[in-house]
Every structure is written in structure tokens, then in C-alpha cells.
Amino acid sequence: MSASPETWAVLLAAGSGTRLAEATEGRRKQFLPLDGAPLYWRSARTLAALPALRGLVFVFPESELEQREAELREWMQRVPLGLPWQAVPGGKRRQDSVRHGLRALPRECGRVLVHDAARPFASPALILRVLNALEQGASGVVPGLAVTDTIKSVDCAEQVLTTLDRAALRAVQTPQGFDRSVLETAHEQALTHEWDVTDDASMVERLAEQTPHAAPGGVVVVPGEEINMKITTPADLERLRPQQPRQAVTGFGYDVHRYAGETDTGPVRSMVLGGVPIPQAPGVLAHSDGDVLLHALTDAILGCCGGGDIGDHFPDNAEENENRSSAVFVKEAQALARQRGTRIVSVDLTVIAQIPRLGPHKEHLRENVARLLELPMACVNIKATTEEHLGFTGEKRGIKAVALVSALRDADCMQ
């Protein structure tokens, strides 16, 4: 059984970027900085991380080839990609640059990925979808997104000719994958017959129409990605700006409430946990609604943003807090956290009580806390335990709760 053909990638970084020239002060977009490195380097690292890839061909502007190759060598020394590579000069058109890149491929290469360096956010999962479709016999593979706008065909006078069926349309992206021999044949035909196309798949499509046996698998579309955008307009440059760094922070909360006894004269509240009434449970002595779980959660949220404690914001001697819903405390603490650049990402809550039995209520509590915090259910965990008849809760005299909140906080808020 013969070994599978090698897969190489041709990374196109030879464009002039005229539409962005004014916004970038004449710098080509593929060399703009992204995370401290040239834009094309992001795609190179993503491609090189794929186990199936055996090498890279970089296509740079002919006038800058020596400069860019030296730059590339420096980056290879800093962060070795662990793959053989070459740098070649581009051509006047995109298809000329691809043709130059194909000529640099080694004999062992049987499949090739062609990717635009101006799409730095393509994910490994996207590239694997392209490679898998090649494995299944396609001659060409393109990632594509469903078209959501209504598309109309117009003439040179902007008169509408027809409205196209968008259900049959796809906005295509790169990397595009090909059987190498098919793509080379398509480029030969394009050169001979002076085809002028915007992507390599168009060449293979023409080849398949004219000579079906030359591209037996045809061109297929796999799901693309919204994030795999092409840097084209000045507005797109915002995607390249350094993101506000965030620091992981943790907040801890603890609260306890005593169960009402026969001789207690203070305010007695029906038990509520996480905003959920717990039937047939002991009454709780409390100024507010006595929700021990949400009180602990409020303190944990305040801890994430340096906001003090629940007593600082909602004192238990204030009239406005009498029998007040603890959900209000949570939402106001969350609002303060947001004001201080803090975003909650997960919570882990534990209720400690000998009675009542909370197992049947845990999922309802979890749903309610997730809704309150506007978090996915997967980011909220609630546990219930006893203290084996020991201590305050073990003697059925009260209930405790602890909360651990994980969040991300803007780094400038930490200074």
C-alpha cells in the first residue's frame, strides 16, 4: 500500500493592498503587526501546527523578497515551526503568485493548501475540514459561508437583471485545498487561454467543465467560519489592534443563617435558596429574604472586583433591605463588577445543611442562578452537603453556603 501524498501549503503574502494603503500609510496589510509579529506569521503558525502539513512556501512581493526572507528567518529562529520552507517572489496577479508558489513545491507533494495571509484568523478545525474533504476524493475544496443578504445581478448601468437564489450561494474563503496535479493543470490552462480569475477554485471549476476527467472529484464546499474574515477595509484593521489584556480573578463568599426556633421573635422568612422557594423547610431568621446562597454569591462577586462585602452595600439595619429579594443584591454586585471591567465566567456554589434535603432542588437552583447571572448552564455548578450531624448545621440549627466565582478583569482596572 503506497503512502499518502504529502501536503504542503502556499501562503500568499505578495499583494499590494491598495485599498488599505491610505489607512496603513502605505504598508502592505500582510506585514502589519498582529500580536507583535507580521500578520502572515499568524497563518504560518496555524498551518504549521497541523500534523498533516509537511512544508510551507511563502510568496512575498518580488521587490521585497530579500528583506522579507531575512525577516522570516528571524521569526523561524525565535519560534521554530519545525517544517521545511521556502520563500519565492510573487507575480502581478494573485494567480501568478500561486503559480510561482506551485513551482517551488517538492516532488513528494501531492496535495496543496492555498491560503491568503490577509485571513489570519482561520482555525485548525477549518483547515482540517478542507483536508478531510481532499482525503475523500475531491479535486478541490473551498470553505464557504451561506449568504444572508439578498443578491442581485446588475448590468453596467446598475439596472437589476435578476435576483439570485441565495440558498444556492456561498461566500468562499481560504485556505482552499487541491490535488496538486489538478491545480497545476488548471494553472497551465489559465496561462494558455488567458483566464483571469479571483481564486484557484474558479480555475479548477473551468477545467472540470472543459475536461471532466482532468478534475474527477470536482470542487466541493465545506463550512467556513465567520471569524475567518479577510482584512480588506480600514474598519477591518480594528481586529488587528491589541486587545485589552485581562487578568483571571477569583472571589470567595460565605454566609450563614440560623433557623427560627419556637422562642425567636425576630423576622422569620420562608426558606429561599438561589431565588427558589424550598417547601417544607425550616424558617430562617433574616432581615432580607434570608437567601444564604445568594448572599454568599454576592460577596464572591464583590470579591472579584474589590467591591467590599455585602454589608457595605446592603446593611441589615436599612429599612429598604427589609424582606428584600437577594436577587437584587446579586444583580447590583454584578453591575458594579461590570463597571470595574470584570466579567464573571463561572460560579461554584455549595450549600451546607443537615436539613432540608436539597438534592431534588439542585437543578432548579442551578437554572435560576444561571439565568440571574446570564451565564450558560455549563458555567454554573451547585453542590449540597451535610456536616455529618456535627456542629451548628449538623445539629439542624442553621444553614451555610460558600461561593467561588471566577472572572476576567481588565488589566488596567488592576492598577
Automatic annotation (TrEMBL):
A GO MF term: 2-C-methyl-D-erythritol 2,4-cyclodiphosphate synthase activity
Site (Transition state stabilizer): 19, 29, 287, 386
Cofactors: a divalent metal cation
Annotated residues for binding of a divalent metal cation: 255, 257, 295
UniProt pathway annotation: Isoprenoid biosynthesis; isopentenyl diphosphate biosynthesis via DXP pathway; isopentenyl diphosphate from 1-deoxy-D-xylulose 5-phosphate: step 4/6; Isoprenoid biosynthesis; isopentenyl diphosphate biosynthesis via DXP pathway; isopentenyl diphosphate from 1-deoxy-D-xylulose 5-phosphate: step 2/6
Keyword Glycosyltransferase found: no
Ranges for region 2-C-methyl-D-erythritol 4-phosphate cytidylyltransferase: 1-249
Database matches in Pfam families: IspD (PF01128), YgbB (PF02542)
Matches recorded under Gene3D superfamilies: 2-C-methyl-D-erythritol 2,4-cyclodiphosphate synthase, Spore Coat Polysaccharide Biosynthesis Protein SpsA, Chain A
Position of the signal peptide: none
PROSITE patterns cross-referenced by the UniProt entry: ISPD (PS01295), ISPF (PS01350)
Location of the 2-C-methyl-D-erythritol 2,4-cyclodiphosphate synthase domain: 250-405
Site positions for Positions MEP for the nucleophilic attack: 166, 230
Alphabetized PANTHER family for the sequence: 2-C-METHYL-D-ERYTHRITOL 2,4-CYCLODIPHOSPHATE SYNTHASE, CHLOROPLASTIC (PTHR43181)
Functional note: Bifunctional enzyme that catalyzes the formation of 4-diphosphocytidyl-2-C-methyl-D-erythritol from CTP and 2-C-methyl-D-erythritol 4-phosphate (MEP) (IspD), and catalyzes the conversion of 4-diphosphocytidyl-2-C-methyl-D-erythritol 2-phosphate (CDP-ME2P) to 2-C-methyl-D-erythritol 2,4-cyclodiphosphate (ME-CPP) with a corresponding release of cytidine 5-monophosphate (CMP) (IspF).
Family, as annotated: In the N-terminal section; belongs to the IspD/TarI cytidylyltransferase family. IspD subfamily.
Protein name: Bifunctional enzyme IspD/IspF
Organism: Paucidesulfovibrio gracilis DSM 16080
Gene symbol of the encoding locus: ispDF
